[in-house]
Write a structure and sequence with these properties.
mainly beta; Expansin; cell wall; 112 residues; 0% helix; secreted; Expan_Lol_pI
């Protein structure tokens, strides 16, 4: 029986608007759902930055939910998102200083 090889070309995702960051949690526990991601469509790393911190790596909880234990209240939040194909997009001051849990903010988008 002859061998049959199937090759699948990966096609970049196209999305309208920017990447969405839905912030949840309590106290110093932040959980961020990252969605509407263009480009490769999946995320391999996320960093978060408050106005009083440097860039802090987040951990994947499950799916595209990322979390960190850090006191970031009363600080504007910036995000650095790296896709599985190694591209990085940085969104500065996505969430304003007075952000609250349960809110969603829009950042920059990967070019597709």
């Amino acid at each position: 029986m002859p061998e049959i090889w199937h090759f699948v070309d990966r096609i970049n995702c196209r999305k309208k608007g920017g990447i969405w960051f839905s912030i949840d949690g309590a106290g110093v526990f932040l959980s961020v759902l990252i969605h509407n991601v263009a480009g490769a469509g999946d995320i391999s790393a996320v960093k978060i930055k408050g106005s009083r911190t440097g860039w802090l790596p987040m951990n994947r909880n499950w799916g595209q939910n990322w979390h960190i234990n850090a006191d970031l209240k009363n600080q504007p939040l910036s995000f650095e998102v790296t896709s599985s194909d190694g591209l990085t997009v940085t969104s500065y001051n996505v969430a304003p200083k007075d952000w609250n849990f349960g809110q969603t903010f829009e950042g920059k988008q990967f070019q597709s």
